[in-house]
Design brief:
The structure is a homodimer of 364-residue chains. By secondary structure, chain A is of the alpha+beta class. Chain A has a domain at 181-223: 2-Layer Sandwich (Wheat Germ Agglutinin (Isolectin 2), domain 1). Chain A is built from twelve helices and ten strands. Chain A has helices at 5-19, 25-38, 49-57, 86-104, 125-128, 183-192, 228-231, 233-248, 272-275, 278-293, 309-321, 329-340; strands at 68-72, 76-80, 106-114, 133-139, 160-165, 172-177, 201-202, 208-209, 222-223, 263-270. In chain A, the strands form two sheets. A seven-stranded mixed sheet of chain A has the order 1-2-3-10-4-5-6. Chain A is globular. Chain A starts with a helix and ends in a 24-residue tail after the last helix. The model of chain A is unreliable at 351-364 (pLDDT under 50).
Chain lengths: 364, 364
């Protein structure tokens, strides 16, 4: 059962618009959430929308206006996000950082008091399509699930970092967290009675386990940093870096005792043209991409893939042939459709209209 | 058996000077190699010096002059390192990036054709002592030991990345590689008949193993990316990022078929003052550092440490009380001492003279 990409975007945008978001915020947020679903990041796409609508209604996500500029030195900026929709803020930041990188070669923007930014990989193509390399990272100072390596009390969020690298074909789109798994995945496994694929958590006493329920126990356990019990100092180091880029450079974070769901965000764009030329950059990236794709696999029949290859393929397929959502996502939004008087899209074996950028137009 | 910090620096500097390095290169390289030993990075300190001397003698490490400026946009630079000593180039790059970050808020320098840069953490205090956050990363396009996740043919070097974060006390100094372990450690374990502490490598057929000998087999095995067989896509992503920053932005790397030992280097410095103020940055970093240090340990008696805490303590102790080198390091340099007529330092229960920055002067 698939839905037209543009229908899902229009549905989400209308919900956000009727909930009160101003300007281009409904369309930008809607398009990036559906893009996340199409890229396969199904916990960070439309699955977030009901929570966003609730945050708007409760006044915890701001509806209107611009971020406040705390500092602007050309190649560096700090924004106070004023709790505006994080997906919109991050998209705006990537756009501005790309423009500034064209002028300065590089631009870094640190954002305090953003709301949640959902799927980091979804922001990258806007930069890579312009031939730029981009980094997006995020942390949430209001909560913590990950302990420092060797410890048992949570200090960090999973702290995702995404890196977009242009090549001669599809871009490389890396989207990894500093912990082995995420809070969202833990909650999903707990609901579905599942287990982690390995000892990815510690209970409150510091014993490694594959049981997601330890995160919800009292006292709670913690998610292990990337590298796990074996070499978790690597994930710990990444978490320290990401929290410094997001909360340190924006000078707002855990030290302030924030309690509302949100995000501190770091966006950085490099213009290879300002360094040693775009062609030279692409030449190296293309060589590496080819060496990875042609790599003899460890397991026969499981070819080595480049990060983002499946996501880009999923995005093309969703625009051409429609998108199959993870079960429950639209059902979860149906009450909001009734409440805000927005019709839930109808499924069908169709693609997207040319107007929304799909390769194959197929009227429903 | 300890040696005076200043004696070791003077010894290494005289060797490098008599080998032909010009200007301040001998002193800068010597000081940073001994610093690496003092920080506990014993495979990346004076253990490298004999190889450097051999490279100089063979004409594969340049002796004199400056890097060539390929591009300079203020906040971004590319240098052609002309195969000058990498330790000197990286130290110069951190110094310049810190000065430029003061003007622009941020500065990134990508260096092609550097020689080996040894211990990345050793470059960080120069930035953190000025209140700056710094990132140093390195790859060597002439060789490869790490396969992309799911593959069996090496494409990447271990690709270290180091991050320095100023706090209200000692800086946080992270120094991690994108693979679980390194080529140097594999060679050392092979010599000593040891094994990895876990399944950190794959044989040529893709089977996980703790046997370092697979790296030297024909066909050779590979080092696993950080995360290992369980979640090695994380280390794979880091390797792709680091190779793009070092070889992509400098537009020189694996695509050029380089065969000589060397490095492609990325240095980036952020001035928190230009973002949202130094005090605000330090306040967040101090909060995080305290939360990590006070974290209840998973194993009783093994307190959680901050990355760099042992290194800074080791550096202070080495300057005050002298430095105990890893076995074999000075013996390995004795032939070079004879060849270049430089006396090998004598050990003794002494500290460093006040002139070299030690806290306690103790004449030998």
């Amino acid at each position: 059962m698939t839905y037209r990409f543009g229908d899902l975007v229009a549905f989400a945008a209308e919900l956000l618009s009727k909930a009160g978001l101003d300007g281009d915020k409904p369309d930008v947020v809607a398009r990036l959430l559906v893009t996340a679903d199409a890229m396969g990041h199904t916990t960070h796409g439309l699955a977030q929308l009901a929570d966003y609508l609730e945050e708007i209604e409760a006044g915890r996500m701001a509806r209107a206006g611009e971020p406040e500029v705390v500092s602007d030195r050309g190649a560096t900026l700090v924004w106070d996000g004023r709790r505006l929709p994080g997906v919109w803020l991050a998209a705006r930041a990537v756009e501005l950082a790309a423009a500034r990188a064209k002028a300065h070669g590089i631009c870094a923007i640190s954002i305090r008091r953003s709301h949640h930014i959902a799927c980091l990989a979804a922001f990258l193509p806007a930069a890579t399509e312009a031939g730029m390399m981009a980094i997006v990272a995020s942390s949430d100072p209001s909560t913590a699930h990950v302990a420092p390596f060797g410890g048992t009390r949570a200090v960090f969020t999973p702290d995702p970092i995404a890196i977009g690298i242009p090549t001669d074909g599809d871009p490389i789109l890396i989207d990894i967290s500093a912990s082995i798994t995420t809070a969202g995945m833990s909650a999903r496994l707990r609901r579905e009675g599942g287990r982690f694929a390995g000892p990815w958590a510690l209970d409150a006493k510091g014993r490694a386990t594959d049981d997601p329920n330890v995160l919800f126990a009292d006292p709670p356990g913690t998610l292990l940093p990337a590298g796990g019990t074996d070499h978790g100092h690597k994930g710990y180091g990444l978490a320290l870096m990401i929290e410094a880029l997001t909360q340190g450079l924006s000078a707002y974070g855990r030290a302030d005792g924030e309690t509302d769901w949100g995000a501190s965000v770091f966006v950085e764009v490099f213009d290879p043209e300002a360094f040693a030329g775009r062609a030279g950059f692409i030449r190296q990236a293309a060589w590496t991409a080819a060496a990875c794709r042609a790599n003899p696999p460890a397991v026969t029949g499981r070819p080595v893939r480049l990060p983002g290859a499946n996501a880009m393929e999923g995005l093309r397929r969703a625009k051409a042939e429609g998108l199959a959502l993870h079960p429950g996502i639209l059902e979860n939004l149906a009450p909001w459709g009734r409440k805000l008087d927005v019709a839930v899209p109808k499924p069908g074996p169709h693609g997207c209209s040319p107007a929304c950028g799909g390769a194959i137009g197929a009227a429903d």
